[in-house]
Amino acid sequence: MTTSGGNDGKPKSKRRTSTDIVHHGRDPFAHHGFVNPPVYRGSTVLFKSLESFEKRQQRYTYGRKGTPTTEALEAAIAHLEGGHRTMLATNGLAAISHTMLALVKTGDHVLVTDSVYQPTRKLCENILKKLGVETTYYDPLIGAGIAKLMRPNTTVVFTESPGSQTFEMQDIPAIAKAAHAGGAMVVMDNTWASPLYYKPFEHGVDVSVQAATKYIVGHADAMLGSITMTQEAAARMAPQIDFLGIGVGTEECYLGMRGIRTIEVRLERHWRSGLEMARWLQARPEVARVLHPGLETDPGHAIWKRDFLGASGLFAFILKPAPKAAVAAMLEGLELFGMGASWGGFESLVLPFDASAYRTATKWQPEGPCVRIHIGLEDVEDLKADLDAGFDRLRAAKG
Ligand SMILES: *Cc1c(COP(=O)(O)O)cnc(C)c1O
Fold first, then answer.
1. Is 64 among the residues known to form the active site?
2. Ligand 1, closest atom to CA 95?
3. Which value, in Å, is the radius of gyration of the alpha carbons in the chain?
4. What is the pTM of this model?
5. How far is 250 from 255, CA to CA, in rounded Å?
6. Which residues of 348-383 are buried (b: 16+ CB within 10 A; e: fewer)?
7. Closest CA to 151 of 114, 103, 183, 106
8. pLDDT one-digit tens code per residue, 310-345
9. Which structural domains are found in the chain, ordered by start?
């Protein structure tokens, strides 16, 4: 295992997060002084004796089961999230599907927030359903009221806070209390806050999933997922996940590790710029509402302030009613905001969305067209100018 110590590899007294992020898991003089550890590529791992092969008596046994590169990233994420153990997955959705498959059996019931990342819903509707696992969606604002939805066979309560399109904040401690009272495990998709701004295990979560594709990789150049577990969850899940086969490419892990080194400075900037842009959008006459839990006026602000350590650069705004062609004119002409899925990279993005199409437990009735926005690391004045011109096009197209 890579050490949690300084450059000489020896553990140091407890340090603060910023220092840890830079030094954790590096041991340059074990690698001729090079600052970063090498990438171990490999499937086959050789054994020196028949006995050691038969007993798998060595640290590394097969590429799929882990390399020094994958373990370094797992240790770093576990440390940042505050969990017992992390296992990596090839992307965020794979982390979610492996988590669910490791936790449920035929005849089980799972509770999933209505604000969940849409592909998670498809996993429930297709794979879990096929296995005979029933899903009930619940109002993301349900809080302690989730107790009423618990059944004797409820094994998982799935949360995502805030929802990554509609940004409702969930009362995770209240939900966790009720879930645990009913014998269920709490899984959280913690991608929005990243392991830096939400510490799930301090709020009752048993399994925290990251789309590491987003802020951990941070440069839109690789896909990764992570599953971080309490000791109890790991004991139950790790063998199951191992059976499923979860080997992650080491080049991707290296990019994840490189992303982590700068995650704190990047996120501070995403947070500050995102909030400034949210306030700017809120003051625009074309905008009906901004959905950002960091805004004092947001319905989720109290929970955000109570439980979160910061905000990322992802939020949404609802336009006043406008025809589709006007929204298209606004978005298509943007020079700095690209239109595309994913987020968490250095660049700004926009994406129109309509959550009313798939909600089942709650109604999503926006005042007008909805736009999700990711504020990247560009200068905010340039971003404002780009959106300003976009609003001009919107108004011109509306006539
Ligand atoms: C992107 C995303 C995922 C899926 O991650 P991929 O790496 O794209 O598979 C899961 N949850 C949330 C909240 C996401 O934004």
1. yes
2. 9
3. 22
4. 0.95
5. 9
6. bbbbebebeeebebbebebebbbbbbbbbebebeeb
7. 183
8. 999 999 999 999 999 999 999 999 999 999 999 999
9. 263-398 (3.90.1150.10)
Contact 36, 22 (CB under 8 A): no
User: Looking at this protein, which amino acid is placed at residue 152?
Assistant: P
Measured CA angle at 209 (ends 365, 201), to 5 deg: 100
Three-class SS state of 393? helix
- Partnered with residue 210 across adjacent β-strands are 226
156-194 pLDDT, tens digit per residue, is: 999 999 998 999 999 999 999 999 999 999 999 999 999
pLDDT tens sequence across 248-292: 999 999 999 999 999 999 999 999 999 999 999 999 999 999 999
Please give the structure tokens belonging to residue 82.
């505050």
In whole angstroms, give the CA distance from residue 282 to residue 295. 10
Mutate to test the pocket of ligand 1, among 88, 190, 191, 246 (most ligand atoms within 8 A of CB): 191
Question: What per-residue string of b and e applies to 155-189 under the rule 16 or more CB within 10 Å gives b?
Answer: bbbbbbbbbbbbbbbbbbbbbbbbbeebebbbbbb
Amino acid occupying residue 206: D
Q: Tokens 């926006």 appear where?
A: 366
238 DSSP assignment: H
Q: Give me the pLDDT at residue 24, please.
A: 84
Catalytic, 105? Answer: no
Q: Report the distance separating Cα 242 and Cα 67, nearest Å.
A: 14
Residue 44 CA, ligand 1 centroid: distance in Å: 31
d(CA 141, CA 289): 19
| DSSP labels, 21-43 | HHHTT--GGGGTT-SSPPP---S
62 secondary structure, DSSP code = B
Ligand 1: residues with CB < 6 A are 91-93, 117, 160, 164, 189, 191, 211, 213-214, 223, 225, 342
